Amino acid sequence: MSSSLFRAAAVGIACGLWMSAGAASAAENGRVSPQGSPDGPARGMYLLRITGCNDCHTPGYAESGGSTPGSAWLTGNPVGFSGPWGTTYAANLRLALARMSEAQWLQRARQPMRPPMPWFALRDMSDDDLRAILAAVRQLGPAGQAAPAFVPPDQHAQGLVIHFVPQPAAAR
Ligand code: HEC
After folding, report:
1. Of 11, 25, 59, 121, which is most buried with the most CB atoms under 10 A?
2. Which atom of ligand 1 approaches the CA of 125 most closely?
3. Residue 96 alpha carbon, nearest atom of ligand 1
4. Residue whose CA is at the smallest distance from ligand 1 atom 22
5. Is the CB of 74 under 6 A from ligand 1?
6. Nearest to residue 102, comparing CAs of 139, 128, 73, 68?
7. pLDDT, tens digit, for every residue of 12-51?
């Protein structure tokens, strides 16, 4: 079992206990509805859930079936994505967005980023949707450590990476 899957399993178990204790807030672990103001945190939380930001920006989120506790959401991922672009790391959005003004966020969200970040999805969001995401991430508050820095293609990354290199299915 990979360490990341093991971590996901541990988080899943811890989360199950936490929920059964009744401590989970609906915004963090229940299903969220797109209510509230169009640029408010409730809608932002909904957008974060349905647009898949946690899949990469939250360690173990996808492996846990989306049940990672809100305390770990968007805290960045130490597992890199390696490909022809070099090695990228899903940023700690809790720290990055805490440092940005609304104007800086709207500008940053519309700039190209390296793969596999779906930056074009952010680019195509309305200003209200982006403001809602900012409000939701600010409500979660700053937490965690910065993700590792980008490693250019001619340098070797340290630690764990996922290789994006297409190869014949039979190759081992
Ligand atoms: C498939 C994985 C993946 C998904 C899904 C994803 N991201 Fe990313 N994200 C990344 C990676 C990798 C980077 C680093 C890109 C780089 O180094 O240029 C990144 C970078 C970013 C940055 C730049 C942070 C900074 O410090 O400037 C922002 C903002 C961001 N992502 C927001 C989002 C949001 C919001 C969503 C959901 C709509 C999302 N991401 C979904 C992988 C992902």
Report:
1. 59
2. 38
3. 26
4. 91
5. no
6. 128
7. 333 333 333 333 344 444 555 667 899 999 999 999 999 9
